[in-house]
Structures are given as C-alpha cells and as structure tokens.
C-alpha cells in the first residue's frame, strides 16, 4: 500500500519530518507525532501547532505520544487549517499554469 493511501485513512502520522511526507500528511489534515531526522521542518510543524515531539522512540513512549496528538483538539484544528490552505492553492496544475504564464 502506498503512503498516500495510508494517509487518507489514518488519524495521526508518526513522522521523521521529511518535507514530502509532512506535506502529504498535512494535506490530509493529519496530526503529527514528530521524531525528526532534521529539526528545521519539525520546528515549523511544532510552531504551527499541528504536532508534538516524540523525545524517545521506544515503544513505551510512542503510544502516549500518539494519544497526546489524537486527544488534543488544538493539534487537529491546526492540521485541518493547514489542509484547507493546501486545498485552496489548487495543486500542481495551478502551479504549472502559473509557471507557464510567467515563462510566456
């Protein structure tokens, strides 16, 4: 199963905070549990309020982290707001059309 298929059915996403997977998850309005390999994007996600940090990836810490992002309504509300913004942008077709218009 492809990641996009999973994201459309999930309630929360445990992520290493790669740009593509983070954007894909937020596109579908998912709250994020962050275990970043790089911190720049993770800091921005945290700043936007769409997820929480997982300090330790041990099984004992993953479940409480998932429950935190599932049960904290502000994470879901922030993720849904970002999702709405992505959907309003028009996607790759609108972006391609704008680039072509600029290029003449």
Task: Kindly list the characteristics that best describe this protein.
mainly alpha; three-stranded parallel sheet; 104 residues
Write the layout of secondary structure elements.
Blueprint: H1 3-7, E1 12-15, H2 19-27, E2 31-34, H3 39-48, E3 51-53, H4 59-71, H5 73-89, H6 91-103
Walkthrough of the structure:
The chain is mainly alpha-helical and 104 residues long. The chain has one domain (3-103): Rossmann fold, CATH 3.40.50.2000. It contains 6 helices and 3 strands, in the order H-E-H-E-H-E-H-H-H. It has a 3-stranded parallel β-sheet, with helices on both faces.
Top-tier CATH class = Alpha Beta
Rg, please?
Answer: 15 Å
Q: Tally the helices: what do you get?
A: 6
- How many domain regions? 1
Can you tell me the overall shape?
Answer: elongated
Which structural category fits the helices and strands?
Answer: mainly alpha
The total beta strand count reads 3
CATH topology: Rossmann fold
The largest pleated sheet is described as: 3 strands, parallel
Structure in a nutshell:
The protein contains 6 helices and 3 strands; from the N terminus they run H-E-H-E-H-E-H-H-H. With about 100 residues, the chain is mostly helical. The chain has a single domain, classed as 3-Layer(aba) Sandwich (Rossmann fold), CATH 3.40.50.2000.
